[in-house]
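Async update (no meeting this week)

Hi team, since we skipped the sync, here's where things stand on the single-chain job. The sequence we agreed to prioritize is pasted below, unchanged from the tracker. I ran it this morning and attached the output directly underneath so nobody has to dig for it. Comments welcome in thread, and please keep replies under the output.
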Amino acid sequence: MSLQLRLFGGGKSDAGNLATSGNDGGHAIDKSRVLAATAAGVITPLTPGNFGSIRTAPIVPAPRYFERDEADQLKELAKEKTDGARQAKRAYQSLSKIEEADAKVHKEHRKYEGVVAENELKKVRSNAGLAKKLHGMRPGYARLGLGIDKAENDARVRIDAIKVKLTAGMN
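Output:
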């Protein structure tokens, strides 16, 4: 498959369906599809997320003493979690940048689609203008056709008259 077909799609064009689709100015814009989330799980007012959190260590409900090995284990866990938090921060910053880039691409693609839609209207309007012009020419073509039919008929009458004279002259 060619690159152009992969980028822009292939197969039959819908252009031929425009004339028969009852294009009367209606629309097929489904508001629920326009306003639908771009992916499952995305945060919106209708899907606010779960407000979950992270808690590595349980809450200590009251003051208490810790044993040395508990304190050592907590210190090691704190180091791991501190590094994990640093890496999580880097990852979330990267994810945020990716989201921002995705949003820019999405926005620019919608602008492009708007330009395509506007120019499609211009093209279809041009097609409609040509169709009107061609319909206006139909009576002229009909007159030309009648003129050809009349010329053919006149020629046939003259030929028949010549044949009559020739057959009368031979007898």
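Quick observations from my side:
Residues 68-170 form the longest helix (103 residues).
The mean pLDDT is 89.
Reply here if anything looks off.
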